[in-house]
Structures are given as structure tokens and as C-alpha cells.
Write the C-alpha cells for this entry.
Amino acid sequence: MDHDYHDYIVVGAGAAGCVVAARLSERRDCRVLLVEAGADIVPEPASIRSPYPVSHAVSAYRWPGLAARIKAPRPGQPAPPPAPYLQPRIMGGGGSLMGMFAFRGLPADYDEWEGAGAAGWGWDGVLPAFRRIERDLDFGGPLHGQAGPVPVRRHRREQWSPFSQAVGRAFEEDGYSFVADANGDFADGHLAVPASNLPDRRVSSAAMLDEAARARPNLTILADSEVQRLLVSERRIVGVALMRRGEPAELRARRVVLCAGAIGTPQLLLRSGIGPASDLAGAGITPVHNLEGVGRNLANHPAIYLSALVPRGARQRRGALFHNGLRYSSRLPGCPAHDMFMPVINRTAWHALGDRVTALGACVYKPFSRGRIGLSRVGGRLVADIDLALFADGRDLDRMIEGTRRIFRYLTRASELVTGLVVFAPTNARLTARLAEPKAINAIVARVAGAALDGPAFLRRRALRNAGIDPAPLFDDEAGLADFVYRYAAPMYHPAGSCRLGADGDPAAVVDPRCRVIGLDGLSIADASIMPALVRGNTNLPTMMIGEKAAAMLREDDAQSGARS
Ligand SMILES: Cc1cc2nc3c(=O)[nH]c(=O)nc-3n(C[C@H](O)[C@H](O)[C@H](O)COP(=O)(O)OP(=O)(O)OC[C@H]3O[C@@H](n4cnc5c(N)ncnc54)[C@H](O)[C@@H]3O)c2cc1C
């Protein structure tokens, strides 16, 4: 047996890649190599393991130096400069950094995918894959999995903090009914928000690569190894060229499965000469295969938050990130139902300031704006050129503005229910991000600042001035509110769609409904990049579902073609 030859090379050990590698290697005669650019730390460090998300603030777990143009310019105004954009580089990918919101999206989202040419990806086609990866601790029946690797659970209402309870009451007074099972009842309403964790730990897709899976002789995990390009022979992909701790290597396989994420996968294709001919020519890359959809159709959820300082008696020290939220329909012209989500953030950080400050957000879950990813040459080097283009479609900004009005309304009502709640608009994201890094010095700074917030009124006012502004005047100033929302809205970490699924023959599709790259042999994609459109939910579980479904199809295709596995 050739020990350097694999049946599959899976590139990227993220939400989808861990699932793909785990499932493919269940067949002992199938040799799988999982390549990850980031570290593989076993056992998971405390910051990743924590059920309260902390690891997103650890710079060692991110792609260094990644920047993106975040927002499309407003009419008549210059484009804002690129800003840092967080993407995971660690075993588990986004699953190791995420907030652990465990939504699936709505059945209509998947029916829309199928309508866009992704045959077999309608709700009935994806539900079995969701069920196989989930272990729902609260609900059973035909809509929920009971035996999968990822626990899904909700907090009981009596466990919620006074802030979560008060905002929930404001939602219900506004006419929204309580929805206990947001992954099975898809109406608008006040949701008990599902989480993918256990009381003492996060559970990401990396859990599928447990000790037993790692002991499989047919599975190799190569961490700290960045794939630089695909090896191509005629129209077949035959392997990858990678750099491991400064050393180049070439590894070969019968099939390569790209799971490098919606930002990483299109870059790898472009570096390998696969993509829109004009983009390749512009970056001086020798073309291998003209595929117009690569890097296009990039979608993301935009979000905005207002915060509230919670008085001493109403805090939940060391509480969960979230308990509840609101799914609602903006009803703006041309916008689909259930297009918005409001997360109630119970505790904004792991430290003493986070215990004192809560937040309420508005997210556009069905955005119309689309961006793109390309490569440009800087000093002879190819670098990512990412344009998220949030608000390129004015309907997305309009919904954010309306959502901000709602946030203020609900927080105002909550402050009647929780005496002493002080609402403010956070404007110092850089300071918040710096303090979020889990370091002893940040714990001390947060404790001192927290004491100031609990101190005399003049100290509290000064501390709050450093953190944000009083939002009330914005709501009497249409233009001022629009400026505020445009400036302070931010992308969630849900990039998707940059190598989308579609029918063979659709010029915008990159993969066919069996996840095979159109026009090439030996290459598949299974990650968030293949979503034809974003789902109305956070993207971790949907991406794990993609990995699960893709792996099943690869195994079926192998069985049919008589390949070894
Ligand atoms: C901070 C943060 C918070 C989030 N919160 C939530 C949440 O609460 N709920 C939710 O549902 N979703 C959440 N998400 C989104 C979710 O994590 C992503 O949608 C999901 O991880 C996407 O999965 P993926 O497999 O497509 O890519 P990823 O999980 O990003 O995995 C891609 C992997 O490929 C590796 N890679 C990339 N390029 C290469 C290369 N050239 N060579 C080798 N390896 C490479 C990367 O290092 C990475 O580990 C969050 C994401 C982030 C970053």
C-alpha cells in the first residue's frame, strides 16, 4: 500500500470538515487525510471548552492579518477602508470559536435552495442529515435527532436572568407568542434559543474526532499545515500542495474535498487557476478551468446591538450568553417572512464588565446584499480581496434601521420592568474586543471598570461615556439614525454562498447537487461556501448538516462506482 496516497484529502477541519473526515473514515478501507492550517490542541484548551464563548477573542485561533471591505459605500460617499475580519484557524474551525446558537434555518430556506437547482437539498432532503448530527435534549419526534454527536438544549424560563425575562415580556406584550422549540416550530415568536453545548462545555464538530475516531488507522490528521493550491492533471485534481511548519509537501488522493469555509475555499480554487477567467487574468494566475461562480454570491448576516447596564440585584454572574430571542417579519416591501432575529444577550463578556452589561441585537437573517472574494497581487504575493458589501441592497439597511427602533422600544420597556437598567449605544468596539481576550490583566481592568459602574453616579456617567452614547436622541433624527446604523452595524461571522450549489449547466453554480465541482474530476466542496443563499439562522448546524449530507453522497458515489470505499 502506498502510505502517501489517500482515498480522500479533506482540506479544513472546521464545522463541515470534521464531519466529512469522521464520516468517511468510518469505513476502515477508506484512507482519509484531514489537513488543517490551524493547531490541533488535545484536549481542547479551557478557552475553547468553556460553554460561555471566550475563544473567539484568542488571536492565535484566527487567520492573521485578514481584512475585508465590510460595507458597500453609501450613495455619493467614498468606500470605507478595509477592516479586520475574523475567520477561524483552529481544529473545529468556527465551531471552536462560535457563540453556540444552534439554529437550523427554516424549511423554506432549503426549499429555496432546491428551487435554485440544488436538487435533493429541500427540507425533506436535509432533515435526515440534521437528525443524524443532533442529539436534542428537550424535544423528540420526527423533527429531532436523538443520537447524534451534537447536543441541542435550551434553558428553562425559570433559569433566565431578570434581563432576559424582562425583554421576553416586552416581546410578548408586543403580540409575539412563546415558541419553545425554535427548530421545529417555524412561526414568528419569542424563542427559547437552542444552544449546541452542555452545561460544562462547548460541543463543536471536533467532537466527532474523539479519541475513538483518532485511533482509526485509516484517519490521519495533519494540523499546522496550510494547503496552498490543488494539484491538477488534465481536468482531474490529484492532490494538494501544502506548507507544513515552513516545509513544502505534495500529497495525493483519489478525491480532494474542500472544507476551507466560505472565505478559504474560493481562495484555494482561485490560487489553483479555477474561477472566473477575468479574475484569474486580473491576478496574473494561469487559468485551468473557467468557473464564473467562484468567489461570487458571498452573503453574510448584518447585525447591530444596543446595550444595557444592569443594576446589581438583576445580574446573572457567570450566566449563559443567551436564553431567548425574537424571530419576526420586517414586513418591509419585497422582504420575506421571518427575515429578522433579535438575540437577547444576557452577558456580553466573560469578565466583571460582561456580567454588568447586557445587549439586544437585530440581525437581518435574509439579506439581499451580495459581495465577492477575489485575489489580488501585492508585491508579487497573492492576497485575499474580500468585499462583504453589506448594505449594497438598501432593503438590508432599511431593515436594520427599523430593527434598531425596535431594540430601543423593547429595551425601554425592559427598563420599566428592571429598575435601574441604563440603556446605551456601544460605540467603542475596539475597546470591547481588546478586553474580551482572556487574560489576567483584562480581568483586573474589567473589575476596576465594573466597580466604577457600581460607584457614584458621576463615576458611572464617566465610565459609560467611554463605552457609548445615549441613543434616545437618534430616534427623533431620521438621518442621524441611518448614519448611526450604517456606521455601527457589523457583519456576523456567517459568510456563505461563495461557491454555490446549483444545477449542472447553471453558469453561476460551482458545485452540482452532489457537491462535485462542475467540469473537473476528483474535486468536491462541502462547507458554508456551497449554500445557494443564507438560511434564516446561524450557520454552524446548517454547515455541519452539509458535511453530513456530502459525506453520505461521497460514500454512495464510491459504492456505485465500485471504488475501494
Ligand atoms: C466568532 C464566531 C462566532 C460564531 N457564532 C456562531 C453561532 O453562535 N452559531 C452558529 O450557528 N454559527 C456561528 N458561527 C458561524 C459558524 O461557526 C460557521 O458558519 C461555520 O464554522 C462554517 O463552517 P465551515 O466548515 O464552512 O468553515 P470553518 O468552520 O470556518 O472551517 C474552515 C477551516 O478550514 C481551515 N482552512 C482554511 N483554509 C485552509 C487552507 N488553505 N489549508 C488548510 N486549512 C484551511 C480553517 O483554518 C478552518 O479551520 C460563528 C463563527 C465565528 C467565527
Summary: The CA atoms of residues 28 and 218 lie 6 Å apart. The longest helix spans residues 394-417. Residues 1-65+87-150+202-300+492-565 form a domain with the FAD/NAD(P)-binding domain fold (CATH 3.50.50.60).
